[in-house]
From TrEMBL:
Main function: Catalyzes the reversible conversion of 3-phosphohydroxypyruvate to phosphoserine and of 3-hydroxy-2-oxo-4-phosphonooxybutanoate to phosphohydroxythreonine.
Name the record gives this protein: Phosphoserine aminotransferase
Cofactor(s) recorded in Swiss-Prot or TrEMBL: pyridoxal 5'-phosphate
UniProt remark on cofactor binding: Binds 1 pyridoxal phosphate per subunit.
Recorded GO MF terms: O-phospho-L-serine:2-oxoglutarate aminotransferase activity
Protein encoded by which gene: serC
Subcellular locations according to the entry: Cytoplasm
Species the sequence originates in: Thiomicrorhabdus heinhorstiae
Length: 361
């Protein structure tokens, strides 16, 4: 089966097979990683390797802290303003869809949010033109969602370069496109991502933050929302999500094994291009996202003939192409083709889509 779920999402088959083997006896310890003290030497080695591997695959400079935090990406929606702004400060947010809106709503509880652009509709299909972006002079940081998972709308390098040029810390939610291509981490203030798409199991968030941005949390910040707490205790102030760390560590090793983010990006580009070009070439399917802002990770499409969605989903499921139903807020279909989705999965999907279209021509 190929699982196109948007998250929790498919994980590399090699990783899942290895996990199965490890479950009863990890590295001859006589127990699984889930049953082991996080302070044990064996586990500490796993934790150190995980961080080192992530630093290697993303080329994270030494002046960045890598934190592993519970609570998923959404908890960072609150942590970001609490760590970086006072209640009197202003912060800049770009609104490109549902996930941006959630981040804005949460930040607005703690500080003054200026929306740079967007927000007129819940699910925009294009990024507001940069000529319309209105930054505030004194923003403490600029926040964007790099890839809106629901629609499959992705910020492009030109957008990022424009943001970097503002000279403020750029904070990016990369939950659904982290490690899908190479990036220059040194340009960012802070990068965060929920693990359940390109990294591992849900519940864990990866935070990569420039060290000068750590240590300024407001007094009222809960201890476990303060980045300093994680930075000071190797993300082990309390019991970490040990199994999630183990799996994330395995995924980072898998990325290294298959040639690093560069190699994965080549496959990702090919997968996305072939699926979009099939959709564009077919009269039976359409994608509504601005062509040059289409996500590599979440490909949304709808059927041009009405009343066939349920049948499409039933048949695709029977063909072992799983979880293709689009998010209810946007409708239609969505094929999430994260790093772990093999190219054959995309080929099989295209073949199925064509045969379904032929059936209903
Ligand atoms: N940001 C984006 C872009 C997402 O796609 C998601 C979840 O799908 C989240 C944030 C929220 O992540 P979590 O459920 O880990 O809080």
């Amino acid at each position: 089966a190929f699982n196109f779920s948007a998250g929790p999402a498919t994980l590399p088959e090699a990783v899942m097979r290895r996990t199965q083997e490890d479950l009863l006896d990890w590295q001859n310890t006589g127990m699984s990683v889930m049953e082991m003290s996080h302070r044990s030497a064996d586990y500490m080695q796993l934790a150190h390797e995980m961080e080192a591997d992530l630093r290697e695959v993303m080329v994270i400079p030494d002046n960045y802290k890598v934190l592993f935090i519970h609570g998923g990406a959404s908890l960072q929606f609150a942590a970001i303003p609490l760590n970086l702004a006072t209640s009197d400060d202003t912060v800049d947010y770009l609104n490109t869809g549902v996930w941006s809106t959630k981040a804005i709503k949460e930040a607005s509880r703690y500080t003054n949010v200026n929306v740079i652009a967007g927000g007129e509709t819940a699910n925009p299909t294009e990024i507001p033109p940069m000529s319309e972006w209105k930054f505030s002079d004194d923003a403490k940081y600029i926040h964007v969602c790099a890839n809106e998972t629901i629609t499959g709308l992705e910020l492009q390098q030109e957008h990022m370069d424009f943001l970097f040029a503002q000279g403020k810390p750029v904070i990016v939610d990369m939950s659904s496109n982290i490690m899908c291509r190479e990036i220059d981490v040194s340009k960012y203030g802070m990068i965060y991502a929920g693990a359940q798409k390109n990294i591992g199991p849900a519940g864990l968030a990866i935070v990569i933050v420039r060290e000068d941005l750590v240590g300024h949390a407001r007094d009222i910040t809960p201890t476990l929302l303060n980045w300093q707490t994680y930075a000071g205790f190797e993300s082990m102030f309390n019991t970490p999500a040990t199994f999630a760390w183990y799996l994330a560590g395995m995924v980072f090793k898998w990325i290294k094994d298959v040639g690093g983010v560069k190699a994965i990006a080549e496959v990702n580009q090919r997968k996305a291009e072939k699926l979009y070009s099939y959709i564009d070439s077919s009269e039976f399917y359409e994608n509504h996202i601005a062509v040059d802002q289409r996500s590599w990770m979440n490909v949304t499409f709808s059927l041009t003939k009405e009343g066939l969605d349920a049948e499409f989903l039933a048949q695709s499921k029977a063909a072992k192409l799983l979880s293709l139903k689009g998010h209810k807020a946007f409708g239609g279909m969505r094929a999430s083709i994260y790093n772990a989705m093999p190219e054959e999965g995309v080929d099989a999907l295209i073949e199925f889509m064509q045969s379904f279209a032929d059936q209903h021509a």
